[in-house]
Amino acid sequence: MIRSFLNAFLPEDEYKRLRILYFMAETTFLSVIILFLLGFLKYFLNFNLDTDFILLLTPPIMLAYSYFRYVFSGIEHTEVSSKNEYMKKRRTAVIRSLSMGVIFSIIFLIVKGIPNNWNDGIDLIAMPIIFTVLYFLFEMISLKKSYKQNKNLTDD
Amino acid sequence: MVNKMKLTRVERGLTQAQLAKQVNATRQTIGLIEKGEYNPSLNLCIAIAKALNKTLDDLFWEGD
C-alpha cells in the first residue's frame, strides 16, 4: 500500500478507494484552475473580486464537489442489490436523517441561542427542516444509484 | 478472463458477497471485475486466485 496520511480517510476496498481518490484529484485540479482564473481576472484584468470571499468559499465548494461526485457515483452502498436490502437501507436512511436533523437543531440552538423574535423562531424551525430534507434527499439519491448499479452486477 | 473468474466462483459454490469477504473487497467490486468494468490490482488478483484455489493464469490469462 502507498504510504500517505490520506489512507486514514480512505476505505479498504480498492475500487472505492480509487474512485474517491479520483474525486479528490478532480476537486484539486478544478480548484487550481478556478483559482488561477480568478487570480488572472483580479490581477491582470483588474476585476474587483473580494479575495476574502473567494478564500472563504473555496473549501466548501471543494467539499461539496467531492460529496456530490460520491453521492452520484453509486459507490456508497456497495452491498445493496436486492429489494429487501434496499428497503432496509431506506428505513435506516429515514432514521439517520431524522437523527441528523435533531443534532442539527441542537447545534443551531446552541449557536444562535433562544430566539427572541418571530424571524429567529422561524429560522429555528425552518433550518433544521431544510437540513433534514436535503440530507434525506442525498441519502436517497446515493442509495438509489448504488442499488441500480449493484442490481446490474449481481448474479446471486 | 472475466468469465473464467465468475465460472470458477460459481463452481466453488461461492456468492459474490462470500468471495468479496474472503478477499477484503466489496460485492460491488467483485461484480465489476466479473463484468469486465474494473481491472483489479495484482494484489487483489492474487487474493482472488488464492480464495478460488486457482493460479493467476487459470483465472486471468486470455486464451482458451
Characterise the protein shown here.
The complex is a heterodimer of chains A (156) and B (64). Chain A is mainly α and 156 residues long. Chain A has 2 domains: 5-73, no CATH class; 83-153. Chain A has helices at 14-43, 51-73, 83-112, 118-153. The model of chain A has no long low-confidence stretch (mean pLDDT 91). By secondary structure, chain B is an all-alpha fold. Chain B has a single domain (2-56), classed as 434 Repressor (Amino-terminal Domain). Chain B contains 5 helices and no strands. Chain B is globular. The model of chain B has no long low-confidence stretch (mean pLDDT 91). In chain B, 62% of the residues lie in helices and 0% in strands. Chains A and B meet through helix 1 and helix 4 of A and helix 3 of B.
Task: Please describe the topology of this protein.
The complex is a heterodimer of chains A (about 160) and B (about 60).
Chain A: H1 14-43, H2 51-73, H3 83-112, H4 118-153
Helix pairs in contact in A: 1-2, 2-4, 3-4
Chain B: H1 2-11, H2 16-22, H3 27-34, H4 42-51, H5 56-60
Helix pairs in contact in B: 2-3
